[in-house]
Amino acid sequence: MKKITLLLIVLLVSAMLISAEGEKIITQTSTVNAVLKGLYDGEMTFGELKKYGDFGIGYFHKMAGEALAVDGVFYRIKSDGLSEIIKDSDTTPFFTITSFEANTDNFTNRKFDYDGLKEYLLNMMPRKKSFYAIKVTGIFDNLEARTFLSQAKPYPDVKQVIETQTEIKYTNTEGILVGFYTPEFLEGIGIPGFHFHYLSMDKTRGGHVRTLNVNSVTIEFIEITRFQIILPKNKEYQDADLSMTKTMKKDLRKFEKQ
Ligand SMILES: [Zn+2]
Asked: For the CA atoms of the chain, what is the radius of gyration?
């Protein structure tokens, strides 16, 4: 009798694990409208964030650089474009993460600029109202990236953060684009459309992608339909008016497209 009970428990637990693993989920900390409102303080630690996946992009506490995770390693791209490993005790004000295990591996030797690549990806995606986690590997003829400078309190608005961003040009650089496609109607909660951060193959440099040109790439992606948000509990977040105004929509375009 005991053996049968034990067997049932084992079967039940295995079934639960399989279903949890089969359904991929995207986890996001905070919402992008909070960042647009100047809430640059990190709340969740990267140590905590690691529980939700091994692949993702986002911001760093005080907006100091750009952040990304690939193969479970978390990198901060500093204002000079050089990377450093993020400590578990460091925090993020906004990050999107998942477990990346692509079921597609697509090689193409077509020539792309950034818009061309986005269009190509869009055509590959079976549904436009799902999320996609996307990894693009290749040798980029050129790639322009940006990183933000660390901000000091009282925090300036996003326009000033954009004005002081560092722009870095890479040529003939081999590396990985780590990013997501977020359905357009989630603007304000997330960053609508495509959003990529770059990491060189030797993992030493990168940044938020502004433009690129590439001759051949390998594309891996996963469609994800489950999405969870972990909202901040801090007072600034609770007190902020987070409704998306026209100005915020304009700021968001500048913020993530430039
Ligand atoms: Zn970015």
From this structure: 19
